[in-house]
Amino acid sequence: MFLSAASGFLVTVSVAVGACLGSGTAYAALSQGASAPDFTLQGALAGKPFTFSLKSALAQGPVVLYFFPAAFTTGCTQEAHDFAEAAEQFHAAGATLVGITAGNTDRVAEFSKVECRDKFAVLADPGALTAILYHSVNTEHQTLLSQRTSYVIAPDGTILLSFTSNNPEQHVVETLDALKKWHAGKRQK
């Protein structure tokens, strides 16, 4: 039973990767209102090994999940700095902040300590399997990389924001704004 379920998953991932590779570019991220796929990945928080489960994190409140291409590249480093500087604002909004990358996955522990300034976890997505589930893959390179996409996910698993931009500067602004709107909507009910 497990083997056939696993085989079905691998076939699904293979088809998705094939479609993605055939396009030679990124494909549309999951949209606002969609259900966020559950996942569990290994990563690092403040340089120490860390296991992240979306389901567990959502039980605590909203999740800000941002995909970035590769650790220790110029744009990704700047984006990590921006998120680190705003980490207290995310925390004050009750959100879990987490970065995820399919590039340089062997360096996420160092990246979480140095560039994320010990403020939030960074997850390794070897083979970009989680990025594929979230339609956040960029295939313009020799290897699959995460597309620069940020999601804000409500505790019920609904995607409140899906924002894709190669410019790392807007991701913090967009995700904080989505959290503020979500909180305002909760107060009106």
Question: Topology of this protein?
Answer:
Layout: H1 2-23, E1 40-45, E2 48-53, H2 54-58, E3 63-70, H3 74-85, H4 87-92, E4 96-103, H5 108-114, E5 121-124, H6 129-133, E6 137-138, E7 145-146, E8 149-153, E9 159-164, H7 170-188
Parallel strand pairs: 3-4, 4-5
Antiparallel strand pairs: 1-2, 1-5, 3-8, 6-7, 8-9
Report on this model:
The chain is built from seven helices and nine strands; from the N terminus they run αββαβααβαβαββββα. It has 189 residues and is an alpha+beta fold. The protein has one domain: Glutaredoxin (3-Layer(aba) Sandwich). Strands 2-1-5-4-3-8-9 form a seven-stranded mixed beta sheet. A two-stranded antiparallel sheet has the order 6-7. The longest helix is centred in the N-terminal third of the chain and has 22 residues. It starts with a helix and ends with a helix. The N terminus is likely disordered.
- CATH-level-2 architecture: 3-Layer(aba) Sandwich
Instruction: Write out the CATH superfamily name.
Output: Glutaredoxin
In one word, what is the shape?
globular
- The neighbouring-strand order within the major sheet is 2-1-5-4-3-8-9
Largest sheet: 7 strands, mixed
Mean pLDDT: 84
Count of beta strands: 9
Sum up the structure in keywords.
alpha+beta, Glutaredoxin, 7-stranded mixed β-sheet, 7 helices, 9 strands, 25% strand, disordered N terminus
